[in-house]
Amino acid sequence: MSVPDRIWVSNLIDAVATRWAMPPIIANLVTIGAVPIILTVLYFNVASGYTWTFLLTHSLLTCLLSGICYLVWYYDQKVLPKFISDVERITGPEWQSVSNGLVRFYRADWWKTTIGYGILSPIAFAANFGFYQTQGVGEIGTLSFTIYMLYALCTSLISSLGIHLILTTLIAVSRVSKTDLQIDPLHVDGLGGLGFIGEFCVSTMAIASFGALSFPYAFQLATGGSFESVVYMGVGLYLVILVGIFVYPTIQANRQAEEKRASKLEELRCRINQLEAELEQVENTAEESTGPLVKKEMELQRLREKYNEHQSVRLYPLSIGVIVRFAGSVLLPLMFLLLEFYLPTVL
Asked: Residue 31 has what DSSP assignment?
């Protein structure tokens, strides 16, 4: 089975960007990114009785939905290909088939995630229909109802693509951790060549952090609609997943690398012990010839240096830059949480 060169979102954005000679981010805004914006403008022009708070929180959600497809394109064309290229440098030939399956999952199997996750938005709309009616959604069959139902379906599709992106990262690092990683103690990243894993995870986390723009909308839904506990559980689960995108894969990669290092150190230790035994034998039998003795001593020194290099290298794929980006990625969600829980008290 052939590997698609793009996910359908990238095909659409690239086609428009090439045809009209515009940056991909603009091409997104005039194609699929325009859909939630148009539906929002139409809705608030035909609806009546909505609050300004609902208008504001809905607009933030619309900004998120409008930008997600560009992030999906960016992940597809920049983040994922770089990760696969980086992995190829430290794995064996078996990675080719693994990476093909991974790319195929992201670019061709997005519909599976949409079926599994996408049903949530229409269900939430139906379950909280009473709340939406207080915000201008009319009875079934009215224009305002039709527009907002289309908005719910649009939310379902686009948010599913974001979830699919996160799933791809988790699957990618899980599969990498099961491959034969080659640790390079002299790699420039100072992490045995594994620094790219942290970079990949924190890049995905930074993309996922924009999901916090939906918090105000979710909190208003929790206050005015049904299933308040479900909404807050969903927000809590989002935060767990957000941190898990970074923590779980890096722990998995570190564990596999530690096992690989332990195996390499044991191999070197056995060779050092064997060479030391051979040196004793040479010292006892080659009293007049120093050539074999010097040669084995030099080899023993080389093996000990190699042993020390492998023993001292840091294998947790975290650099200072990655940690700073991790901290920055959690600031937006935390800011909205603080606003939700403390701003009303202050006011």
From this structure: T
Place of tokens 């937006």: 332
- What is the distance between the alpha carbons of residues 164 and 114, in angstroms, rounded to a whole number? 8
Give the pair of three-digit tokens for residue 185: 């103690």
Where do runs of H (alpha helix) occur along 47-180? 52-74, 80-88, 95-108, 110-117, 120-127, 129-134, 143-176
How many Å apart are CA 256 and CA 264, to the nearest integer? Answer: 12
Helix-strand-coil percent breakdown of the chain, rounded to 5? 80, 0, 20
- Which whole-number Å values give the CA distances from 250 to 36, 90, 239, 245, in the listed order? 35, 16, 17, 9
For 41-67, how does the pLDDT look when each residue is reduced to its tens digit (9 = 90+)?
A: 999 999 988 999 899 999 999 999 999
User: CA gyration radius for the chain?
Assistant: 27
Residue that is written with structure tokens 């970079």 in the block: 199
Tell me if 265 sits within 8 A of 307, measured CB to CB: yes
Longest Cα pair distance anywhere in the chain, in angstroms?
104
Among 159, 201, 196, smallest CA distance to 72 is for: 159
pLDDT of residue 109: 94
Contact indicator for 168, 112 with CB cutoff of 8 Å: no
Query: What pLDDT does 13 receive?
Result: 96
C-alpha distances (whole Å) from 320 to each of 148, 185, 207, 243, 323 are: 45, 18, 19, 17, 5
Tokens at residue 81, please? 């290909």
